[in-house]
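User:
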Amino acid sequence: MFYRIFRAFLILCLRIMYRRIEAPGLARVPPHGGVLLVANHGNALMDPLLLLVLLSRPITFLAKHTLFPMPLVGFFLKRIGGLPVYRRHEAPGESAKNEETLDRCGSTLSAGGIVCLFPEGISHNEPKLQTLRTGAARIYCRAMRRVSAGLTLLPAGINYESKRAFRSRVLVVFGRPIAAEDVTSLEAARPGEGVAELTRRIEEALRELVPGLDTWGELAFLRDVRALFLGRREESLTEEAVSLRRFIQAYRYYREKDPDTVAAIRERWEMYRRQLRRFSLRDESVDLSEAPVRAARFVLLSAVVILGVMPLAIAGWVTHYPAYRLCGEVERRANRAADQSATFKLIGGILLFPLTYAILAALLAWRGGWKSALVGLALLPLCGWAALRVSEERQRLREGVKALALAFTSRKAVEEIRRQRRGILDSVAQLLRDHPPEAAALR
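Assistant: Predicted structure:
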């Protein structure tokens, strides 16, 4: 019962925090039977919470033992059946306790449950997979000794549009099950080799589901070049990921083939981004400026929505902004790691927004009685939604207004930006002509 209530609460929290959560391949999670779920780990507590929200089946998570004594995090970890992992550098002399954790994982899997772990062993802020530990492979091999129907070993790649940004998007890709049936016999015949081979397969499967680049700057560069090359349009992260992967593969190929030209294209892109920042523009505004009628329609629709919900939005801003602002301030002052930003904000929101509602309900009850408090509590979420909607529409309105201003008053600036765009695209096209891509290199 607690698990279901906690999951329902998290669904609400994450649907507010993220504008969209996409999960292609979710149907690959079998409805029954033991499942060992392995995922990359780039955003602290947000990674397991997203998986918990997406999967309707209960999940047993492995987490470092230092989280369990923490007042809030530890409380929920224990209630949902979390299992501690003792790492040598954090718990000298206690790593033997991991044997008990491995046995409990085996029991859960043999009973048809789901166990999830992050085989990198750490949360990090890199756009590529870190070196994997052998824990996942050891759990699988140990569990296979106890089950007769087999286990599903399933990889998941968790990709954030922006880790720090409120109302951004998330893409969680569930890959194909990893073939592992033959590994147990190899491990039985030659202890250690089966675990090493399965760890290699897990790493290979996860690499297919994450960008695998050295820096976030490279990812931003490739996303922009892809959008310019294919034509910027509204699309889901799932749709973007299909072609983005080919651009990443091409980037790796050409970085080896002709590094000077790739560096020159990136320098052109950086100049283009500086030009956009100079005029406080986004690509969307430049695109809209080429279609003034569409931009005008964009402005009109956004204005209608804003005016329609503005009364509720004003109440929403007044009541929700202090807690929202305080969450950001606490995160800014307390957080020291980029991969923990969203975790701080979420925990802050879970604590501060219910407190805000309680204070407002108490004030309404004091001034107008319990009926006023009930009406106020019913209206507060609606006001919060209106405030979010107006904030998002306000961004669209700004883009439309800037597009109209560019179309009619800043033609020289638009021409310069378009010239820089053409320069980037011409450079990419010339690179393709000079070095036609080899099909084998871009598979």
